[in-house]
């Protein structure tokens, strides 16, 4: 969905945050390397674009209006998300001077890794990172082969031959389109019902698939999938177009559930919680930048 014409560009939001922090358009302009007239014009343009006054100006400086304070908080979230995106994109680029190579499952790479990499950049700006993505089985294979300094997988156990540590918690959810009959259910799904239903699932080897199959083992295992897809994005698209119920990470559907594009279906009697783990070759604890990144994941 395209951005609304009322959403200012990123540079304008950064300027607004600087004014709110420094209390002066002039000081904010100097910090960002632009002239004060240009900064003032940009703020006025943003006020026209949004349609509300953002700053109270006086001889002592500038401060956000009551409405402006709300916009400042929203802008801070947008700028921080953009910084995390930039850190993630930078790590995806193959670089000859890379000092840390990370391979991560898709869920971890899409929804957690940008924030972790941003934190690493803040404490160790000279560390160069290369990030690769794979399903959990392939992550384990890459780490065992020495192709990565650190891996991140989804699943109930640490893969054989690897050491590991839990760095985050996740939960699988069953979601459907609002038009699906399950969206109007008044009672939770039972394990037997879920096991008997042809779901849209990730491919074999993914941590999501492994956790679901283990959770449904007491009910005879999962039925043959209606579709097998290779990413959370594809799963969400399939669910929204009515292809059938989908089981995927709760991290992946926060926005879709909040906006009503998907509906979560409660499930009883089935443990769909799962840990997310950092992994490394057994007997070789992470060192250097890998150890630093591992420590940051636990702090966050």
UniProtKB/TrEMBL annotation:
Q: HTH lysR-type domain spans which residues? A: 8-65
What Pfam families does the database record attribute to this sequence? HTH_1, LysR_substrate
Keyword terms of this UniProt record: DNA-binding, Transcription, Transcription regulation
Q: Which first-to-last residue range defines the signal peptide?
A: none
An example Gene Ontology molecular-function term: DNA-binding transcription factor activity
Question: Could you say which protein family the record assigns here?
Answer: Belongs to the LysR transcriptional regulatory family.
Q: What is this protein called?
A: Molybdate transport repressor ModE-like protein
